[in-house]
């Protein structure tokens, strides 16, 4: 069924007039005459059979129908602009720009990135780390890995990894003067915090431990530094399964207790739909999902 559309060439004029509430200023923005803006708006009104502007002697204002239509038109033009920039934006051949968090890069991505390089020697991966959401077009990002609910407007998100939360520590803390054998033994050890939403207070309550101050210990903004502190025996970290899996597999960390909590947020691979037309983006996305599948197989076995 064909779309019911207004005169498309007139939409920028209507959008500019609605933003400025002035045909004169809209004409200046688009390098058109006042009459051209007026005719474009009238053309749309005639096609729709709806009055979009109230015209005064020296001013114009949007009618309720015009205001509602202007909001939808502005959103549609923004989406078209973003799609156009994404297609037209220059990308150096062979370079893949990846955005993720410091913790995910340091504890999950970087330790296994050599496997991607071996399989795709013609793709140069450039990683930027930030806790902020990337603007794919403005920041020149090809693909991102983000921790959250997976609802990233205007982008595709695919589940990479669910997250369980549990205490981890150096194997050295399983022995010594105060060995970790039960959650109550944590009173003899330093708690390590990394700012994760599920904190020690939540875990200790679930474990039935009430005589330990859950806010005590050492606190890091970076999951990378927090995990390194645990590896070096400086305390017990409430670790995220995705970020400590490599250290557990290598024996640098161990789980002293069995209790784990399921995080509501998860890790997602995020990208613009059009990005998969690029081989390097598709290859990296497929590799990420394959690596995550290997992790899941290891947990199952």
From TrEMBL:
Coiled coil: none annotated. One of its GO terms (biological process) is DNA-templated transcription. Residues 6-63 form the HTH lysR-type domain. It comes from the Bacteria. Keywords: DNA-binding, Transcription, Transcription regulation. The keyword Acetylation does not apply. One of its GO terms (molecular function) is DNA-binding transcription factor activity. Belongs to the LysR transcriptional regulatory family. PANTHER family: HTH-TYPE TRANSCRIPTIONAL REGULATOR, HTH-TYPE TRANSCRIPTIONAL REGULATOR TRPI. This is Transcriptional regulator. The lineage of its organism: Bacteria, Pseudomonadati, Pseudomonadota, Alphaproteobacteria, Hyphomicrobiales.
């Amino acid at each position: 069924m064909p779309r019911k559309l207004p005169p498309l060439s007139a939409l920028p004029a209507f959008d500019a007039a609605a933003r400025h509430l002035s045909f004169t200023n809209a004409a200046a923005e688009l390098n058109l005459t006042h009459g051209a803006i007026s005719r474009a708006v009238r053309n749309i009104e005639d096609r729709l059979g709806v009055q979009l502007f109230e015209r005064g002697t020296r001013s114009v204002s949007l009618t309720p129908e015009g205001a509602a239509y202007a909001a939808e038109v502005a959103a549609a033009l923004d989406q078209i602009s973003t799609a156009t920039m994404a297609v037209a934006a220059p990308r150096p051949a062979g370079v893949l720009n990846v955005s993720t968090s410091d913790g995910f890069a340091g504890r999950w991505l970087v330790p296994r990135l050599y496997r991607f390089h071996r399989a795709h020697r013609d793709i140069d991966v450039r990683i930027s780390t930030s806790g902020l959401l990337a603007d794919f077009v403005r920041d020149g990002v090809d693909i991102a890995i983000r921790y959250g609910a997976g609802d990233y407007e205007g982008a595709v998100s695919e589940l990479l990894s669910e997250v369980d939360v549990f205490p981890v520590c150096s194997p050295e803390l399983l022995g010594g003067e105060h060995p970790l054998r039960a959650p109550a033994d944590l009173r003899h050890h330093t708690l390590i915090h990394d700012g994760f939403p599920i904190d020690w207070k939540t875990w200790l309550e679930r474990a039935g431990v009430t005589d330990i101050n859950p806010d005590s210990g050492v606190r890091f903004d970076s999951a990378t530094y927090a995990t390194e502190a645990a590896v070096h025996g400086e305390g017990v970290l409430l670790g995220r399964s995705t970020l400590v899996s490599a250290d557990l597999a290598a024996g640098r960390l161990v789980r002293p207790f069995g209790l784990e909590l399921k995080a509501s947020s998860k890790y997602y691979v995020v990208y613009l739909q059009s990005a998969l037309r690029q081989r390097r983006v598709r290859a990296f996305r497929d590799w990420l999902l394959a690596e995550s599948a290997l992790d899941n197989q290891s947990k199952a076995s």
